[in-house]
Amino acid sequence: MISMNEYYKPISYQVTAAEEGWMLKTVLNRRLGVSRKLTSRLKLTEQGITLNGERVYISHYVKEGDLVEIRLEQETSEDILPQPIPFDILYEDEELLIVNKQPGIIVHPTHGHYTDTLANGVVYYWQEKGERFRFRPVHRLDQETSGVLAIAKNAYVHQHISEQMIAGTVLKKYTALVHGTPPAMEGRIDGPIDRDPLEPHRRIVTDSGYPALTLYKVRETFAAGSLVELQLGSGRTHQIRVHMTSIDCPLIGDKLYSYEALGLPAPDLEAAVRLNAAIGRQALHAAQLGFVHPLTREEMVFEAPLPADMAELSRLMAGGQL
């Protein structure tokens, strides 16, 4: 059997008078928000689900004042090599780690790229603190994209934030530097997205694609481009990059969706090439991420400042130097 010190701190709920007579599984689902998948997993451990400190069947009927507790087993990412890779922490508690991902770093090891990722650094950080967590990013950012990234420390928290993502209640705001100027200072791009049948690694806007919505506001305009704030209404792969290209404003530095890569006419190709070379990566930054904390139920918004390379590029464009 698993000893108590191999569990994380219990998540608790006290049954109210209105819930007396409910089955335990109903309390788990409706009050603690435990999914069926997680319930099945918890049932397999000795102290995974308890009622007043005792292990009972989830079909057991509860009474007012009963204490329902769930305990998740401690986990580690044994498949991730710990490495002393520095990263910026924006916030941390017992359930969450929020970081400001730097541009150029991959979030999670992939085939052929097992080291030098954010995951390697986070696993090392936890190991040095004597803590045991599995690396569970709630969402992903492209290698070249910087900004706010949320990492759940257990399956319960990951499930709850993922459900908020699916429901569309998570705030996701980005800042981008783009070529040209959008057709309006504020607007919405409502264009379905799917794989490009000719280039499977690339996405395109197509009537047969999956619904995708991006809201944008132009914050500054320059001779050769614009600083744009974007808010996602959905979470399709490469969504911002594809949508901005669809209105003839590809992201500066984007190699996959550039004028040249797509064979699109550029208003000033020489200027576009200079801008792309000036930053060397897609000028996209995850500026804000907001959601309801799964345990405290507090609405939280995390912000990451504009990275140095984008701030410098913006300054040069504003001064007419690019």
Describe this structure in words.
- Helix content is 23%, strand content 25%.
- The protein has three domains: 4-70, Roll (Structural Genomics Hypothetical 15.5 Kd Protein In mrcA-pckA Intergenic Region, Chain A); 75-167, Pseudouridine synthase, CATH 3.30.2350.10; 172-286 and 313-318, Pseudouridine synthase, CATH 3.30.2350.10.
- The radius of gyration is 23 Å and the shape is elongated.
- It has 322 residues and is an alpha+beta fold.
- It is an enzyme of class 5 (isomerase).
- Belongs to the pseudouridine synthase RluA family.
- Residues 96-245 form the Pseudouridine synthase RsuA/RluA-like domain.
- Responsible for synthesis of pseudouridine from uracil.
